[in-house]
Specification:
The chain is of the alpha+beta class. The protein is built from 13 helices and 14 strands. The chain folds into 3 domains: 74 residues, Roll (Ubiquitin-like (UB roll)), CATH 3.10.20; 133 residues, no CATH class; 87 residues, Alpha-Beta Plaits.
Length: 352
């Protein structure tokens, strides 16, 4: 056993133990995006940096071994600044977005991509439940809305935007929470006479909603059947990240107060590979080249694994030469998806 100091407190630890494990055992949070207990260390992300006060040097705690007399600053201002700098560098190459534009502009932040995934999978009841859970009364809320989600939809760059607003109104029209409604002639829109959140609808509000309903119906026909709603949802480009709620990079950036930079490096191609055998999805734009999937693959045998290709900023993680992505560790796809810190690797069947 050796004795070291962590943030001024003496701590006993086994000589040669990983510094990051010893610090975390003291209840101190040390972020890391390339470290996994039990795997050989590979210093990549530099987000776990700490300062050794005796030498004044910053060291990656994931690969540093504990030694007698160490004096570690694990959470000071200079350490946080160093970690923030590392996160900024990662974000410069991270050419992906956490949330889809349609959800960002929604005043109620409805998870529209998830709703579309549920509809595409035929899970209409779950999609309706999601809409009611977020909006309380989808018909009242979305009829009154100016359709920001439709305007932000990126599908219009290809052909026409998805009729998101009308789809939500359709889902809510069969399951009204309170009150009765009246249909605007020729539109298929039920206009509520009672808003379950705000109270009775005034004549002015009703007239405004009626005009918007007519305009909306003119631009995009309102789905009249469940099949039409599901078909419309299937046009979604899924601009969001399925790991938005479970992303180590996003968590580190939030904790360190780092904002997503506007200028991005373009070394990573914006491509999506799907393994039809295992359902594994790989998106290069989200990859931070932490190497966890590569190291995991090296521990598993019997099938080709992911590997590094290229040099410097041109380096990417991909399948080996002379192999297809469909050959990659089909029996271990869930483990590959689980170990990825950014959602670059995910499973197709997960509706989240």
């Amino acid at each position: 056993m050796v004795t070291i100091k962590i943030d001024g407190m003496p701590v006993q630890a086994e000589e040669g133990a990983r510094l990051i494990d010893v610090i975390r055992s003291q209840g101190i949070t040390v972020p890391s995006l390339c470290y996994e207990p039990g795997m050989e260390h590979y210093t990549s992300c530099m987000v776990c940096m700490v300062r050794e006060n005796n030498s004044g040097k910053f060291i990656p705690s994931c690969s540093a071994a504990v030694a007698e007399g160490m004096d570690i600053d694990a959470d000071g201002p200079s350490v946080k600044d160093m970690r923030a700098g590392a996160v900024r560098l990662l974000l410069v190459e991270h050419r992906a977005e956490c949330e889809a534009p349609c959800r960002l502009v929604c005043p109620y932040k409805l998870d529209i991509p998830l709703m579309n995934r549920l509809l595409t999978a035929g899970k209409t009841a779950e999609a309706t439940e999601l809409a009611f859970h977020t909006l309380t009364d989808p018909v009242a809320v979305c009829t009154a809305c100016k359709g920001y989600c439709d305007k932000a939809c990126r599908r219009k760059k290809i052909d026409t935007n998805i009729s998101i607003k009308n789809t939500i109104i359709f889902l809510g029209s069969g399951y009204r929470v309170q009150g009765a409604g009246i249909e605007v002639p020729g539109t298929g829109y039920p206009i509520p006479l009672f808003n379950s959140t705000l109270g009775p609808v005034t004549d002015t509000e009703f007239s405004q909603w009626a005009r918007e309903a007519v305009e909306g119906a003119r631009n995009h026909p309102n789905p009249s059947t469940t099949e039409e709603a599901c078909e419309e949802a299937s046009r979604c480009l899924h601009c969001d990240c399925r790991a938005a709620g479970n992303c180590g990079l996003r968590d580190a950036a939030t904790a360190l107060g780092v904002k997503n930079p506007r200028n991005k490096r373009t070394a990573h191609p914006i491509t999506k590979k799907i393994n039809p055998v295992s359902g594994l999805i790989f998106e290069h734009a989200k990859c931070i080249k932490c190497g966890l999937c590569v190291r995991l693959g090296e521990q598993l045998t019997g099938a080709p694994s992911l590997c590094f290709r290229g040099r410097g900023y041109e380096t990417i993680i991909t399948e080996p030469l002379y192999h297809e992505f469909a050959d990659i560790l089909n029996d271990s796809a869930p483990r590959l998806a689980a170990i990825c810190p950014t959602g670059a690797l995910a499973l197709k069947e997960e509706l989240k």
